[in-house]
Amino acid sequence: MTETLTDAEPLSYEQALEHFDPVLGFEVHVELNTKTKMFSSAPNAFGDEPNTNVNEVCLGLPGTLPVVNGKAVEYAVMLGLALNCQIAERCRFARKQYFYPDTPKNWQTSQYDEPIAFDGYLDIELDDGEVFRVEIERAHMEEDAGKLTHAGTSGRIQGADYSLVDYNRSGIPLVEIVTKPIVGAGARAPELARAYVSAVRDIVKGLGISDAKMERGNVRCDANVSMMPKGTTTFGTRSETKNVNSMRAVEHAVTYEMRRHAGILAAGGTIVQETRHWQEGSRTTSSGRPKSDADDYRYFPEPDLVPIVTTAAWVEELRAQLPEPPAERRRRLLAAWGFSEQEFRDVVAAGLLDEIEETVASGVAPSVARKWWMGEISRLANARDLEPAALGVQPATIAELNALIEQGRINDKIARQVLEHVIAGEGAPEEIVSARGLEVVSDDDGALTAAVEKAMAENPDVVEKIAGGKLKAIGALIGPVMKETRGQADAGAVRKIVLTKLGIEE
Amino acid sequence: MTTHTHHLTRLTAAEMAQKLRAGEITSVELTQAHLDRIAAVDGGERGIHAFLHVSAEEALRTAAEVDDLRAAGGAAEALHPLAGVPIAVKDLIVTEGQPTTAGSKMLEGWMSPYDATVVTKLREAKLPILGKTNLDEFAMGSSTEHSAYGVTRNPWDTTRIPGGSGGGSAAAVAAFEAPLALGTDTGGSIRQPGAVTGTVGTKPTYGSVSRYGAIAMASSLDQIGPVARTTEDAALLHELIAGHDPKDSTSLPGEVPAFGEAARTADVAGMRIGVIKQLTGEGYQQGVLDRFHEALDALRAAGAEIVEVDCPSFDYALGAYYLIMPSEASSNLAKFDGVRYGTRVLPEEGPLTIERVMGSTRAAGFGDEVKRRIILGTYALSAGYYDAYYGSAQKVRTLIQQDFDAAFEKADVLISPTSPTVAFPLGENLDDPLAMYLNDVATIPANLAGVPGISVPGGLSEGLPVGIQFLAPIREDARVYRAGAALEKLLSQDAEPLWAQAPELAETEPEAAAEPAEAAAHPAGK
Description:
CATH architecture of chain B: Alpha-Beta Complex
Strand order of the largest sheet of chain B: 1-3-2-4-6-5-10-11-9-7-8
Low-confidence stretches of chain A: none
Number of domains of chain A: 3
Mean pLDDT of chain B: 94
Number of domains of chain B: 1
Structural class of chain A: alpha+beta
Number of helices of chain A: 16
Mean pLDDT of chain A: 91
Distance between the termini of chain A: 96 Å
Oligomer: heterodimer
Radius of gyration of chain B: 22 Å
CATH superfamily of chain B: Amidase signature (AS) domain
CATH topology of chain B: Amidase signature (AS) enzymes
């Protein structure tokens, strides 16, 4: 009796690529942010008490019937268009049947051979600017399942003491985007995987059709990986790593699966066609359930729903309303702002494109806006363990702060303090400056001149250097003046007073 | 039981409505008369057993509301014409506050938290709901013998079946336990019981009546419809329950036609009536064919033009039906797994895994006929078989629709016997599913094509009722009422209407009844 080898030590990434070419495929599920569910009037909301956002329809009670959420169809068409897909003139829902307690009807209403959108593509920009085209096979509508929590040591349904089910998520509208097999990415496959999921997230966020929070499962990625010996064209057996729910995890999961497949194949083994679970801690995958192409879901057209018909006029109306595609927008902003490629990539990676664009629109120079968001705001967010965009700072606030600086009413350092007060909820910058008396010390009453005189008297050696023509030495007087004015002096005004006192003309 | 109240139950629904409006009777009186009749004939060893649940208190409460509104005067104008006329509801249709079992152990004790749209309409129109009627489990059968709660008996001969699946609704109406009832018709479940109990039953155009709240057997075939003793009564009830429902995507938009008016017209002069060649010859009892031909003669004499139409694809209707119906049913019944509601049966030994609990629940909760259809449907939808079975059946369906289209070029309505036989003895076909399925051979084509059909009484054969079916094009339900009412009128010219000729049933005096009316609800459940 011969045993088939199905497990081996993964190869190193370099070794794996020396002998094999990766083939990728992605199924990305996007939860739409409609007010109600896909087929019922129950609310579509996150984070509520379990089993409160439900009604008889999404619980699948006897006698109930589904009704399609028109907004969800509109969103699906918009997404299809943004993915450069064809939109079906007529399509139907189908029942995907399997017994599992997270689907209250024991079938999922999905689309089978008639997806609403098909034959599209997405141009993915990699870190160095190289563009890789990913072909989209289809984007279809379906409903989400409920959420199971398994009590007991395994955390899985097998061996659980009991399981709890929350049907709040049951029936939330989803669009599943399926790529065609992605060949030719080679060593850049993991990077492409991350960039692809990131691009899909940016698109749905830009369309406003999803909250697009991966940590909440609004965007979920199943990553298919197979390896074929270099120089061949027949795809190997694939594994499907389920629910890889962060950009970084997508990249790592693809990397690991490429190494694992290569290890098994190089040792003469066979890849088991199965689903895999991503293990964040060890950055590996573990075996899930076997999955064959012959899985029989007994699909048939959903008889309780009438076909969906899209008119060309309606589709064109939606197309005309589409926002600028994220990639095009990035190219436009990069040119307009004059950032270096690296600076721009950092902004994109920090998720601050929208904020900087709005700040610039409020009249702030792009470089200044970037400095605020990538500098002080990011630092404050970091200290609070938040994303910079989640700190709650409004682009208008930055514009206001910047105006106060340009008017000479506060200096940079005070401006940073004002920002902290804004975040603490003390009001708008202008209010905080007057309430706290932070405006720069004016010389109307001679207070600034007095402070400068005091500093000059206390630093005769510095004064001598300045008088001797070393104007840079003025800097050494700024410190003591600031100290005297509790930081509220304007450095330019101090310089002017010093030069006047010494009779120096610039 | 007084003669007066006994007499009340023998009125037609239209007459009851008229007497209520005129203030000659009260709804409480009328409702109580029916509750008394139920208590007298429904229970006991040889009782009709049309009801699985009797809701006396709720019915009388609604009746009292109607009487109060009428007594108050002004509001009476706003009352629905049928307000105060009691009704029974097939136990496949969900009702808040009354149990819904679908005739299955699977839903024993289940209370729906919502009303079916048709039930909401009954409540809004203030028809006292007497209770829930017996049926074959999940409406799967043609004799009501597949109910998990015991058989229903045919009031014309209590040793015979009342038809199915809606035997309870038909028997209740035939036995004067209710003047009106709701049924559901997937392959004949309203019309065939109507035929064998001498009552009237309509399967409306698919989408005419909302299916929301009817526990689905085969979604693309199911349709709720009226059960009554006269065509006019059926038409009036149909008008009440019809109309677009935003909760049912397959329900039709548009105004509800005046079906009652069509029934009162009752005129076939100049109407082209098509005899379907495929639904008359072999397999039909001679007595059934005799009554059918007499009906044709009567219609011809009344000025109808009788033509023959050829519907060759009807020969494949039964085969297509027994693929489509079980396929959809296998899916619709998947939700009954013991996880969320209804019966849960734990495996007697071994580990308590979710699969095993689902399995033992379904093994114990479903009866044989339901299991037979789930297995058939699961097989037909399996990968590799789908095209050959479900796919081919859908093609036959299209051909049948085309046959109807062609037939309706030649005829305004079509006619056939409703059922090939009169009511057969209880138990006769129980072990022969194919013989049972053949009962629906004439009724199934209408479901496959979505067209409306009615069964009206066509006289007796060996003392048992024969039904005549009229079919009309989609959305032309008014035509079946017009033709049905005409035949009804023609056949009762020289005699009492058939429904009035039913033999007297042995009655138990309410006082002497061993148990109150509510007890009739669960004779088999104890």
